Structure formats: C-alpha cells, structure tokens
Amino acid sequence: MIWFGSLQLRINPLLAVLALAALTLAPSNCSGTSTGGGTPPPGSSPSPGGSHPLNAASRVLGAATCPKVKDLEGVFTKSSQMDNYLACLIPDVEQWIDAVHPNTPHPEGYYFIPQGVTGNDGACKYDDATLAYCPGSEKVYFGEVAVWTQYTKHGDASAALIMAHEVTHHFQRLAKMPPATVPHEQIRYENQADCGGGTFIQFATRKGWLNVKDDIVDVAGTLLAAGSAPGPKRDHGSAPERLAAFGLGAVGAPPNPLRSCNRYVPEVPLVQ
C-alpha cells in the first residue's frame, strides 16, 4: 500500500508488466529491446568529424541519424554514438506528445551533451551526466555519460522512458503547476512524470514498437535504480512509488491514459 498525501493507491508493480504483455508481443522496430551492462569505455568521447560539436550541447535531430535497424540493442558500441540512439527515440516520443497532449507546443528541442562538456543555456546548467528538462528554456538535455550508462546497464528502452518522463515535466510547465518550495513537495511532480512515462510505454506497445518481454525489464530496472532513499531531502519517489506511478500510466484508460496521472496534482490537471 502506497500513500500520496490523501490519495491511497494499491498497485502491484508487476501489473504494468502483465497488462502490457497482454497487449501485444509484436517484434520491435527502431525503439528496440532489452539490457546490457557497463560504464563509458576508455576513449569513448567524440572524435573530430563526429555528428555533434565537441564543445557544446547540440540539437539531436538534424545533427544525428538513426540507423535503419529493427532492434537497437547492442547496435551502439561507443558512448559518442548516443546521439544517434536518441535520434531513434525522439520521433516516437513526438508522436506520443501529439496523441496524449494534442495541439500543444512541444519542447524547444532535445540536446545531446558530449562527454566532458559543461554549459549553461541561461536558465539551466548542464553537463555530460545530465538527464533533465529545463523549464526556463524548455529544452531537454541528455548527457553522453548518463545516456550511455542507461543504455549499457538497463537497455535500449531506458532512455525512451526517461525522455517521456522529462516531457511530462514540460506538460506540467504548460499547465502552470506551482513549483515545489521544499524537496518533499517535488515528489508528487516526479511521480506524475513517471506516470507520464508509463503512458508512453503503453502508447509504444500499442504501436508495436516494443519487444515487451525485454523492454519492460529495461524500464523496470531504470525505475528501480532511480528510486530515492528515505530522508528529509528526498525529492523523488522511492522505487515502489516510482513503479506504482509508472504502472498507473501504463494501464491508464483510453482514449487518453495521461488523464490517469492527474490524480497526483488534482488541483491543476495535467491534461483535460
């Protein structure tokens, strides 16, 4: 039993796995499948002539190219290729945005931060370990080291979940949700973003983009690893809370499962 203020949720974290598996076992396409393991290898930083500059964050689309393969698992062997990996995921996330939050502005862009690069867009700082949405600039940042760790440790569906999580923060900005003033107030916003990530996984599954048997393992591993430990400065959900929030979105009712995520911040609906 997990409690969110006055809201009581009883969700089996495996519910999302079972429900999504029941939807389809279709073979994957560009969004890929399952897991690997490792850390950024020596010498994996970008080399001159690569698809992105060496000294700045660069917009992914237009600078990187998605390889034409059906499964992204094991395709990329260097962290400097992670912008190409992201280029495979962004079009799918953009389709999801139009499906669950139609007629709304998309994020300003999705930016890749090469290894060793740090910067500031005037609203937010970023570096190669960043995985974040910047409300002030409406940009989504993906650091090379952080994405490579997700790809090698949790699998090729992990960054798609993270991207949808960060885009849900964009939806929160558009809804003009009041910012948290102390760390624990942020938890419900983060749980809502995990719920949004769950709706993307449902959308991708219905589209036949995922290998459900593998990709749900990927996203579960990502959420479990990202769970926050108890403490007064905690600003993200615990592992069970994050899994429950993901599950709520993953089995959200049609025609728009994102509405199921409204319960985290009921006074300001994420979507009507």
Task: Kindly describe this structure.
The protein is of the alpha+beta class and 272 residues long. The protein has 7 helices and 8 strands, in the order E-E-H-E-H-E-E-E-E-E-H-H-H-H-H. A hairpin with a 4-residue loop joins strand 5 and strand 6 (125-127). The chain is globular and about 45 Å long. The two termini are 28 Å apart.
Cα-to-Cα separation, first versus last residue: 28 Å
In the predicted model, the low-confidence regions spanning at least 5 consecutive residues are 1-54
Number of domains: 1
Radius of gyration: 17 Å
Strand order of the largest sheet: 3-4-8-7
Rounded mean pLDDT is: 82
Helix proportion range: 25-40%
Number of distinct beta strands: 8
Strand content: 5-15%
- Count up the helices: 7
Which descriptors apply to this entry?
single chain; 272 residues; alpha+beta; two-stranded antiparallel ribbon; 7 helices; 38% helix; disordered N terminus
Please outline the helices and strands:
Blueprint: E1 2-4, E2 7-9, H1 15-23, E3 58-59, H2 82-100, E4 109-113, E5 118-120, E6 125-127, E7 131-134, E8 139-143, H3 144-154, H4 158-174, H5 187-207, H6 212-226, H7 239-250
Parallel strand pairs: 4-8
Antiparallel strand pairs: 1-2, 3-4, 5-6, 7-8
Helix pairs in contact: 1-6, 1-7, 2-4, 2-5, 4-5, 5-7, 6-7
Outline of this structure?
This protein has seven helices and eight strands. It is of the alpha+beta class and 272 residues long.
